[in-house]
Amino acid sequence: MVDHSFADLTLASLYDTINPWGPDDDFYLDLVRSADAVLDVGCGTGRLLARAAADRHPGRLTGLDPAAAMLVQARRRAPGVEWLLGDLRTRLWNGEFDLVTMKGHAFQVLLGDDELRTALRAVRSALGDGGRFVFETRNPATRAWETWTPDRVREVSDADGRVVRIWHEVEDPPAGDRVTFTETFESRDWLRRRVSRTTLRFLAPEALSGFLAEAGLRVVEQYGDWGRGPLTSTSPEIITVVTPDR
After folding, report:
1. Shared domain check, 114 and 187
2. Which of 187, 185, 208 is CA-nearest to residue 198?
3. Is residue 122 domain-shared with residue 234, that is, in the same domain?
4. What are phi and psi of 220, to 5 degrees?
5. Structural domain harbouring 32
6. pLDDT, tens digit, for every residue of 43-61?
7. Which helix (H) or strand (E) holds 155?
């Protein structure tokens, strides 16, 4: 779950423990391996591009993230990758990449229509001829936020063996296609809890396709899960592959 609370160095160091490597990472890694120039938007701790670099990816690997604390982790694990601080509003490329990725549900932090349009135009500009933009968003039909309740507590251990308890709580009923929730981190070894507040946007497939088309991007594939199953009303994800509409 993407969360800007990971601007905190302590929490950034926990990110990969809280979110271990999974089928989504394998899905994106296969795409990266087949691309010459890759831009990973919202790269976080950089594990996707770091894995590709460790596998001796021969091309260009660029990671972009607005959280400096996350990039600290990324630079430690793969100093040879190009790690950039910022977002799609602050960086501009011109046809330099044949793959742009946006994993970890990072797409859902684009809340406003204008913000989303600006980001998609930037992606369109970054893609070369035949390039692909691949991202996922949670399917609003499955109402995942209904499981984000305080009684569902997770426990993880940091690098020093300290136990950290984590839970979520939705603040209010969804406002249109937006859901606001808190994520709480607590440890007996900390002086205080850390609480972050996040709003995510849950776009239905039809609305999503409209924004993409407006930006000159055409949907070529869409899946409902990481095994490339079809998108249905019960699919947990909307995994979308688009290409510039020439």
Report:
1. no
2. 185
3. yes
4. -110, -25
5. 4-138+203-244
6. 999 999 999 999 999 999 9
7. strand 154-157
Q: Which amino acid makes up residue 77?
A: R
Phi-psi region of 130 (alpha: psi -120 to 50; beta: other; left: phi over 0): left
- Lay out the sheet containing 127-138: strands in order across: 82-85, 60-65, 37-41, 97-102, 127-138, 237-244, 217-223
Single pTM value for the model: 0.92
Q: With beta carbons less than 8 A apart as the criterion, state whether 156 and 14 touch.
A: yes
Q: Return the bridge partners of 82, or none.
A: 62
Helix, coil or strand: residue 152: coil
The string of pLDDT tens digits covering residues 73-118 is 999 999 999 999 999 988 889 999 999 999 999 999 999 999 999 9
Q: Are residues 192 and 153 in the same domain?
A: yes
The verdict on 13 and 104 lying in the same domain is: yes
> What's the number of CA atoms in the CB half-sphere (13 Å) around residue 55?
14
Amino acid at residue number 17: T
Residue 94: exposure state from Cβ atoms within 10 A (0-12, 13-18, ≥19) = exposed
Helix 68-77 with 47-54: angle, nearest 10 deg: 10
Structure token pair of residue 12: 């950034």
Q: Phi and psi (nearest 5°) for 155?
A: -125, 130
Scored b (16 or more CB within 10 A) or e, 215-235 reads: bbbeeeebbbbbeeeebeeeb
The backbone region for 218, taken as left when phi is positive above 0, alpha when psi lies in -120 to 50, beta otherwise, is: beta
